[in-house]
Specification:
Blueprint (H helix, E strand, L loop, with lengths): L2 E14 L4 E13 L17 H5 L9 H8 L12
Antiparallel strand pairs: 1-2
InterPro entries: NUDIX_hydrolase-like_dom_sf
Organism: Brucella pseudintermedia
Protein name: NUDIX domain-containing protein
Length: 84
C-alpha cells in the first residue's frame, strides 16, 4: 500500500442519496511512496488519470465529479504527465 506523503483537497460535493445526504471529498496526491492497491471488491482497476481523461470517462461514480475534473484543466497533479 502506498503511504501518502502530500495531498491537497481539490473539491467537495454533497449530494442527496435518498436520505441522508453524502459528502464526498476529492484529493490530489502529489507525493507518495509505494504502489497503489485495491483494498476491497468494489473496483476491478486502479490507475492514474489526467483531469481531462477523468472528466471524459463514461462510467464516473458520480456525475457531480465531471465539472470538478473539468475545472482542474491541465494542473499538474502527480507522477507522470499531469496524472492524478
Amino acid at each position: 500500500m502506498p503511504d501518502i506523503v502530500n495531498a491537497v483537497l481539490i473539491g467537495q460535493t454533497t449530494i442527496e442519496v435518498v436520505n441522508p445526504t453524502a459528502s464526498f471529498h476529492l484529493y490530489t496526491v502529489t507525493a507518495w511512496d509505494g504502489q497503489p492497491a485495491i483494498r476491497d471488491r468494489e473496483h476491478t482497476e486502479l490507475r492514474w488519470f489526467t483531469p481531462q481523461e477523468a472528466q471524459a470517462l463514461d462510467d464516473l461514480a458520480l456525475e457531480e465529479y465531471r465539472p470538478l475534473f473539468r475545472s482542474l484543466g491541465g494542473m499538474k497533479t502527480g507522477r507522470g504527465p499531469e496524472r492524478f
